[in-house]
Design brief:
The protein has 168 residues and is α/β, with parallel strands linked by helices. The chain has helices at 2-17, 50-65, 141-165; strands spanning 33-36, 40-41, 69-70, 77-95, 100-116, 124-134. Mean pLDDT is 85; it is low at 13-23.
Length: 168
């Protein structure tokens, strides 16, 4: 009986000391705050709400997947950047005689700079590009554009988040 109790105790201690991170985030314990600056839209084609929407989507991802507090000004880490490209182009043609666009591609590029004030070696500055293909199918671009932007923002914020916090 003592052996069984001892074995159970060893198993409990072993599993109790293990930690599993389901978010994939690898944030040092000493990091408590992050500042997410406004991502200005410097693309040639400007959608008025894109900067605000992207910045808020990035903040929401950090809020929901980390324990970090968002802070203005002096913080343990800073994420800043700008939207450098917003582009819509045809990717396939449906009619060789009239060159009617079959599907198009919305592409957004964001230049991001992550500054880790606690460990500068973890800092980076790079561009992230994502796109989504779509067909108008009797709908206007204005009707499809909000959902396309939302879908691309999910991909872009995931890329930036993973680059900053998922170091596996």
């Amino acid at each position: 009986m003592k052996r069984l109790t001892f074995l159970l105790l060893v198993i409990m201690v072993t599993f109790n000391s293990c930690s599993i991170k389901f978010s994939g985030a690898s944030i040092p314990l000493e990091m408590k705050t992050i500042a997410v600056e406004f991502f200005e839209n410097n693309a040639q084609l400007v959608v008025p709400t894109l900067s605000q929407q992207f910045t808020e989507d990035l903040k929401n991802r950090i809020r929901s997947q980390t324990r970090l507090s968002l802070k203005q000004g002096d913080a343990d880490a800073v994420l800043e950047g700008r939207i450098t490209n917003y582009d819509i182009r045809p990717v396939s043609l449906t009619d060789n005689e009239q060159f009617t666009s079959g599907s198009s591609r919305l592409t957004i590029t964001v230049a991001a700079k992550y500054t880790n004030n606690l460990d500068p070696k973890q800092s980076f500055e790079e561009s992230f590009t994502r796109y989504k293909d779509f067909a108008l199918n009797s709908q206007s671009l204005q009707a499809l554009e909000p959902q396309l932007i939302k879908d691309i923002n999910v991909m872009l914020t995931e890329d930036i988040f993973n680059r900053a916090f998922a170091q596996w």
